[in-house]
């Protein structure tokens, strides 16, 4: 009978492995669907059985990061760096979550993290000469940090140049960001225009129209948004952004109405801006057109959705006095 026990034992083990792998796959599905509260306990159970499994540790670090539980995320990513010190992405994530913690604590306490953040990002960059995200992180790190504690525009430009070699679009966007941060609007405009010409992605258009909006050039912003929404018709939020500028500045009013109508008709929560803001912008547009009745209708609709909508309450008083 011993031979029978021998045959049964591996079958039992394979069954256990299969169940474990199935649970892990289920957790991955939850994670990919952003159902982190469902994925987390499964991954934690799996980690108890496989304490050095890199992928599980990374998933748990990511989940902690999404929950803004920076200390727990730091622990997970630090373990990844210890277990696999030659993996650039682990150093990048470790540096990133340290940076997020630095933003959440006092400036004095944050100073103590700067050296570790810098070391993590530079290590990642050295380990992987093609790691784009790390070079973006270093651009932001050096440009936002005051010079007295290590900030340097020249070093930020160095990593922007490295980005340009890996991805011309990222290079233009990075140099645009540096110029914008240092209040050189003409240089920023030129770089963002180059990014649109070379890449033409939604991000490129967004950087350019936001630049115009910040610099009080709404007509140029509307022109860029109009081009962007024609090229990226599936991006519903571009319709809202054009309508927003129309309502805010009182220009392109008919185009603004058209865009906001499309935004409302095609709205989904993934668009990011709630519909009550679209109603508010429509009220603004009709106010600019001197059409009090339509303006009142839309501002009322905005307040029905959100009675404590401060901007809409203030706009309602303005419309009353038309």
Describe this protein's structure.
This protein is mostly helical and 322 residues long. It is built from 18 helices and no strands. α9 (153-166) runs antiparallel to α10.
Summed up:
This protein has 322 residues and is mainly α. It has helices spanning 2-32, 36-49, 54-66, 70-83, 88-104, 107-111, 114-127, 132-144, 153-166, 168-181, 185-198, 202-214, 218-231, 236-249, 253-265, 275-288, 292-305, 310-320. The chain contains 18 helices and no strands.
Strand and helix map with partners:
Layout: H1 2-32, H2 36-49, H3 54-66, H4 70-83, H5 88-104, H6 107-111, H7 114-127, H8 132-144, H9 153-166, H10 168-181, H11 185-198, H12 202-214, H13 218-231, H14 236-249, H15 253-265, H16 275-288, H17 292-305, H18 310-320
Helix pairs in contact: 1-2, 2-3, 3-4, 4-5, 5-7, 7-8, 8-9, 8-10, 9-10, 10-11, 11-12, 12-13, 13-14, 14-15, 14-16, 15-16, 16-17, 16-18, 17-18
Query: Per CATH, what is the topology of one domain?
Result: Serine Threonine Protein Phosphatase 5, Tetratricopeptide repeat
Shape: globular
Radius of gyration: 26 Å
- Level of helix content? over 70%
The helix/strand class is: mainly alpha
As a percent range, the share of strand residues is under 5%
Q: Round the mean pLDDT to the nearest integer and report it.
A: 92
Q: Strand tally, please?
A: 0
Distance between the termini: 96 Å
What is the CATH C-level name of one domain?
Mainly Alpha
Largest sheet: none
CATH architecture title of one domain: Alpha Horseshoe
**Any idea what the CATH superfamily of one domain is called?**
Tetratricopeptide repeat domain
The stretches of 5 or more residues where confidence is low (pLDDT under 50) are 1-15
**Number of DSSP helical runs:** 18
């Amino acid at each position: 009978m011993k031979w029978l026990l021998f045959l049964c034992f591996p079958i039992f083990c394979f069954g256990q492995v299969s169940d474990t792998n199935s649970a892990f796959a289920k957790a991955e599905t939850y994670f990919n669907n952003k159902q982190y509260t469902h994925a987390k306990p499964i991954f934690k159970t799996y980690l108890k059985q496989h304490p050095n499994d890199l992928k599980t540790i990374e998933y748990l670090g990511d989940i902690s990061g999404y929950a803004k539980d920076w200390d727990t995320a730091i622990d997970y990513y630090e373990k990844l760096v210890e277990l696999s010190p030659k993996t650039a992405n682990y150093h990048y994530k470790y540096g990133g979550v340290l940076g997020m913690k630095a933003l959440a604590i006092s400036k004095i306490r944050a100073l103590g993290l700067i050296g570790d953040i810098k070391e993590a990002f530079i290590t990642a960059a050295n380990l992987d000469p093609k790691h784009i995200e790390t070079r973006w992180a270093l651009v932001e790190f050096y440009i936002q940090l005051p010079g007295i504690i290590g900030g340097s525009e020249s070093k930020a430009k160095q990593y922007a140049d490295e980005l340009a070699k890996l991805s011309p679009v990222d290079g233009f966007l990075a140099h645009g960001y540096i110029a914008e941060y240092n209040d050189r609007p003409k240089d920023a405009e030129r770089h963002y225009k180059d990014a649109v010409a070379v890449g033409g992605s939604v991000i490129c258009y967004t950087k350019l129209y936001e630049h115009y909006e910040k610099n009080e050039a709404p007509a140029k912003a509307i022109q860029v948004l109009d081009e962007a929404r024609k090229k990226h018709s599936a991006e519903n939020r571009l319709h809202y952004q054009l309508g927003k500028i129309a309502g805010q500045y009182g220009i392109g009013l008919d185009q603004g109405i058209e865009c906001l109508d499309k935004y409302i008709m095609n709205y989904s929560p993934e668009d990011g801006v709630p519909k009550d803001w679209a109603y508010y912008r429509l009220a603004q547009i009709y106010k600019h057109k001197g059409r009090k009745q339509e303006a009142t209708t839309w501002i009322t609709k905005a307040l029905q959705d959100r009675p404590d909508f401060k901007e809409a309450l203030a706009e309602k008083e303005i419309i009353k006095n038309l």
